[in-house]
């Protein structure tokens, strides 16, 4: 039972990270990108 629970936890963690990455990348639309670090 633990291995199944661990598997589900890993899947949820990966999905959460994927959502965050999609937000940052803007899905190939530059106007949707969140501002990143800018060199000054």
From TrEMBL:
InterPro entries linked to this entry: DUF4023 (IPR025097)
Region Disordered: start-end pairs: 1-40
Biased composition (Basic and acidic residues): 1-18
Domain of life: Bacteria
Pfam families recorded: DUF4023 (PF13215)
Protein name: DUF4023 domain-containing protein
Organism encoding this protein: Salinibacillus kushneri
């Amino acid at each position: 039972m633990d291995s199944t629970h661990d598997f589900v936890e890993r899947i949820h963690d990966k999905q959460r990270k994927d959502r965050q990455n999609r937000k940052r990348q803007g899905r190939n639309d530059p106007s949707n990108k969140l501002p990143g670090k800018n060199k000054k």
